[in-house]
Amino acid sequence: MALAKLKQDVTDARLAAVSLPEGAAWINAARNDALTRVAAMGLPTRRDEYWKYTDPSSITAVDAPQAAILDNDEGPLFADVDRVKIVFVDGVFDEDASDDLTAEGVTIERLADVAASDIHWAKDLYGVLEARGQKPVARPLAALNTATATDGVVIRVTAKAEKPINLIYLHNDASSDAVLHNLVKVEAGAEVTLLETGPAASRFSKLLEVDVAEGAAFHHVRAQGRDHERRAVTHCFARIEKEATFKSFTLTFNGVLTRNECVLEIIGDDASAHVAGACVGDGKDFHHDDTVFITHDAVNCESRQVFKKVLRNGATGVFQGKILVKEGAQKTDGYQISQSLLLDDDSQFLAKPELEIYADDVACSHGSTSGAIDEDALFYLRSRGVPEKIARNMLTLSFLAEALEEIADEGLAEELRDRLESWLNRHS
Amino acid sequence: MLEIKGLEVKLEEEDKQILKGVDLSIAPGTVHAIMGPNGSGKSTLSYVLSGKDGYDVIGGEATLDGEDLLELEPEERAAMGLFLAFQYPVEIPGVGNMTFLRTAVNAQRKARGEDELSAGDFLKVVREKAKSLKIDADMLKRPVNMGFSGGEKKRNEILQMAMLEPKMCVLDETDSGLDVDAMKLVADGVNALRSEGRSFLVITHYQRLLDHIKPDIVHIMADGRIVKSGGPELALEVENNGYADILSEVA
Ligand SMILES: Nc1ncnc2c1ncn2[C@@H]1O[C@H](COP(=O)(O)OP(=O)(O)OP(=O)(O)O)[C@@H](O)[C@H]1O
Ligand SMILES: [Mg+2]
After folding, report:
1. Which atom of ligand 1 is nearest to the CA of B87?
2. Which residues line ligand 1 (CB under 6 A)?
3. Is ipTM strictly over 0.90?
4. Among A158, A160, A185, B38, which residue's CB has the most CB atoms within a 10 Å radius?
5. CATH entry, B2-90+166-250, from 3.40.710.10, 2.30.30.240, 1.10.1740.10, 3.40.50.300
6. Distance CA A262, CA A59 (A)
7. Pocket test for ligand 1, best of B44, B88, B171 (most atoms within 8 A of CB)
8. Could you tell me the pTM of the whole model?
């Protein structure tokens, strides 16, 4: 079927500016296939149902809009955590700033190197989960990432990783347009924590494909932030096998456009998948969109979506979350909550929670709310001598607490909580 | 200590006057009780004194040690030493009881130019005071008032009062919802705090609490005014005969 004219024009213009990177035969094929998918689906426009609440035009445009680099005296996150640091500056790997890519239990390679190898296990993952995740909802920006990404990391975890791996995305160039594609394969019984931090680029496209094998555990903690004008579209595609655990948490500060899509497919029994997010936005050009799609295709699995947004001065938050329980996925326990704390009347939260269930023995629940600060609680705190600003921030943090509780590691959670607190202090 | 003169208060949102000229003078070291029918304005008085939104003061004044209370923010009143034990303590999910208490204690100390309590010192004091009120460690760890029974909430109010060491304590029906033993605990907690420089305003419907906390003066409030004041025997009269006699006598 022919694409609508606007969509065709947007797609043609963007693809005309794309030249596929050259690599080994297998990745050339994967990139070509992805490009074919983009051409067939067309890039998103505001008229697409899936983009009703978020305008993708600045993402699909040929040139990345400028994004000023904000000065902020906060040091880097997780500085005291023993971790493997892998640094990208505006989407380009910085070898000098990075640690040796070695840690016990994991093998870490650069996508750029992997793409040049004639034979590599990555062949079975690169673009594979992304392509699976194109149904039932098209995600053309993800396919565009697969087609054009030249850098990223390729991680294989064979045991309990000795320490977390921290991808650090620095933003130094006010007009950078970065594309990164990361792969993580967690083998049976293995376990790893992936940290992602930093403002990344003026415009950032980032895709993560994760295969969590039987009994394995993948922990993901991410903090997007700082630069107000930055734009990011990220995708996480995960395949979760028997008795495996997937846990992802994202904290977002600032950003005129952030769209985080998380597409999880649970294919083995007794598995568990949690995805959570907290965001704080200030200003009418702040726009943050969490779009989640979880497919249950196995028995006795549990999934949890916990999303909390604090919006002030006309900020906009979006949540689109779906739980799809396939036929035969009995004993599914699916929970979804999306809530916003609107600190004024100008801010808005747009939510589209969905359940689609084809099994009869399941327990799924979802809820979405928008509210203001609880005035009675505020008065109670103040009547005990807590100054208003501190009291408001305490209540705001408490609103976000349920999302932060999804971080398994207390130390990491504590550090993010402190960052949130200082953000709130700067913005109140 | 607390001087209230001709205090008149209406609701902000509605054209409804609740307090119609309240006069009350509480000397340092004394215990006053207020009794009165439901809806007479007792809680409203306590809220207006502590600075809750939603009320307009349309006449009169209230001072604490000579300072105009009504101009101050709730936290400033608290730092001056005013404390209200709520009739309905508020549940605050996500804020730990200990964090809350420590933030409050240190905020008040800071506002008064005192040093903050260290985490260790604070913990020691809380544990000790919680123990005497039979508040266990688990309750201290939970979010503020979350999952507390009615009586536990009231004991938690007294714990907060003990930690904050205010000079003017207003207790709004702290006895309601308490079993006999808890009432004794709460009364002991209050009596332990009684001192020359500290005054209490105890709002209650029942004589029973006043058996434990002996008031110096008892006031009867009706329709937004103090209609009668007297000694402890006034509370007994209410207990035995209800309000009808008193109200008809003053009408
Ligand atoms: N926010 C409000 N909105 C509407 N009416 C109010 C509000 N606050 C107080 N009132 C009314 O003011 C009157 C006094 O209420 P208040 O709570 O002060 O009574 P009280 O003496 O404490 O009663 P009780 O013994 O039942 O606790 C009542 O008629 C009550 O309905
Ligand atoms: Mg009352």
Report:
1. 27
2. B 11, 18, 36, 38-44, 54, 87
3. yes
4. A185
5. 3.40.50.300
6. 18
7. B44
8. 0.91
